[in-house]
Specification:
Length: 485
């Protein structure tokens, strides 16, 4: 398996450091608000990586943290009149609601910053003793960036370039504008903990170093997060961890790309900021998860509701085909006709291509392409009168269904009962278009009565009325079936 390593700026063969055991740490949320679509992308990307590593048989330890004390949390808590701890706990609970809906697995360890203050104080003391950090008169502690020779190796930035835009903010006692806070002296009204430097709280970067080192040996096999974390957060993690321990912090640094909204950067100020709740009020979680996997994880992802509509169509096509294949396997009388070799070769190509895509830097977009190829092949078998009755055709359909079932566990999509999922999709589309199901059913009943009375003019008029409501009607041996246009 090859993964793109931000540290090496290239795809590299993934080789665990400790035999079959793999360690992975991913930066979690700062718990001060509902999760947005950017959080969803990062969570789903690393969820698929977790699933695939375990699928390959690795013994994976996955740690994802929660930042539960931070400037943003304190500010928001003061605005709403509750403690920062109450606010953080509220949004950690909301995080789980969103992630459970999206099928994101829980991490093996989910540490909180406030539960690891002692480890962070110990790490800071060690950095001071080694000359990599210093305490100020006010009780702040800063890391000496220039004391760490490798600073900038992850992001590719050099210290002289960074100096051009660096400055010391009013009230700061930095010895150098590049230095960053390990410990912050408490301000009035802020949560604090006792420390050798007085009452205070940890800086943001410190927590991930302390928590990852507590739960997994160094070097970590994989450290991950959003692209926006590579600098300064992950750069600072490397500096403080490697300066403190003398060991390499992580072998692979994996970062997912940004989410854009209609080709613009997502931001509250532009009014193009969507929470996961906003999206799931209109679309199924499976549609959002499929959409997030439809582009390579390192590429920018342009989010729009039109794009979600297209993703929903893709989900529909897959589940419709799966339902038809299952029905055929269960209900068709099969004979002994062989399946043409070219179709068997095509199926083998899709099966091999699917896994090859995952092996090539977790290319979920490419893997989904092979999955669609398998489903299209199933459709061709079902449409061909000869193949549909061939025992070899049945075997191919069973092989396709088994393949989709196997890979659905890695992708986290296409694992539900088709009829149930398709009914939910229809209800979602109807709700978005303002279609009342009861009204549709009443019109269908009238149409059925008109057809029974051979009043075909009335039947056609009702069909036109349904079309105007954006409802499509199909007459099948099982009766009238309606769907949203």
């Amino acid at each position: 398996m090859r993964l793109y390593n931000t540290l090496g700026r290239a795809k590299q063969e993934f080789i665990p450091q400790r035999g079959n055991d793999v360690s992975m740490y991913v930066c979690g949320i700062t718990a001060y608000d509902l999760c947005h679509v950017g959080h969803a992308r990062s969570a789903v990307v690393f969820d698929v990586l977790v699933r695939y590593l375990r699928f390959k048989g690795y013994n994976l330890t996955f740690v994802r943290n929660f930042t539960d004390v931070d400037d943003k949390i304190i500010k928001r808590a003061n605005e709403v009149g509750i403690s920062s701890q109450e606010l953080a706990e509220k949004y950690i609970a909301e995080f789980y609601v969103d992630m459970d809906a999206l099928g994101v697995l829980r991490a093996d360890v989910e540490p909180k910053c406030t539960e690891h203050i002692a480890e962070m104080i110990t790490l800071t003391q060690g950095l001071i003793e080694k000359g990599h950090a210093y305490a100020t008169l006010s009780g702040d502690v800063y890391f000496k960036v220039r004391s760490f020779e490798g600073y900038g190796k992850l992001s590719g930035r050099n210290i002289e370039d960074l100096m051009s835009g660096a400055r010391v903010e009013p009230g700061e006692e930095k010895a150098d504008p590049l230095d960053f806070a390990l410990w912050k002296a408490a301000k009035p009204g802020e949560p604090f903990w006792e420390s050798p430097w007085g009452k205070g709280r940890p800086g943001w970067h410190l927590e991930c170093s302390a928590m990852s080192e507590k739960y997994m040996p160094l070097p970590l096999d994989i450290h991950g997060g959003g692209q926006d974390l590579s600098f300064p957060h992950h750069e600072n993690e490397i500096a403080q961890s490697e300066a403190a321990t003398g060991k390499e912090f992580a072998k692979f640094w994996v970062h997912n790309g940004f989410v854009q909204i209609n080709s613009e950067k997502m931001s509250k100020s532009l009014g193009n900021f969507f929470t996961i709740r906003d999206i799931l009020a209109k679309f199924l979680p499976e549609t959002l998860r499929y959409f997030l996997l439809s582009m390579h994880y390192r590429s920018p992802l342009d989010f729009s509701f039109d794009a979600l509509e297209e993703a929903e169509k893709g989900v529909r096509r897959i589940y419709t085909a799966l339902g038809q294949a299952r029905e055929a396997v269960a209900g068709t009388k099969w004979s002994g006709s062989p399946l043409p070799q070219e179709l068997l070769d095509e199926l083998s190509g899709y099966e091999q291509g699917f896994e090859a895509a995952f092996e090539d830097d977790l290319n979920t977009a490419g893997a989904l392409g092979h999955l669609f190829g398998m489903v299209r092949l199933a459709g061709r078998i079902l449409e061909d009168k000869t193949l549909r009755k061939a025992a070899a055709g049945k075997a191919a359909l069973e092989r396709i269904l088994a393949g989709v079932d196997k890979w659905s566990g890695v992708l986290g999509v296409f694992g539900r009962e088709p009829a149930e999922l398709l009914a939910e999709l229809k209800a979602c589309r109807a709700a978005r278009k303002g279609i009342d199901a009861a009204t549709v059913e009443a019109l269908l009943a009238k149409r059925l009565a008109a057809r029974a009375a051979k009043d075909f003019a009335a039947s056609d008029a009702i069909r036109d009325e349904l079309t105007a409501l954006q409802v499509e009607v199909k007459d099948t041996p099982a009766g009238q079936i309606w769907d949203v246009l």
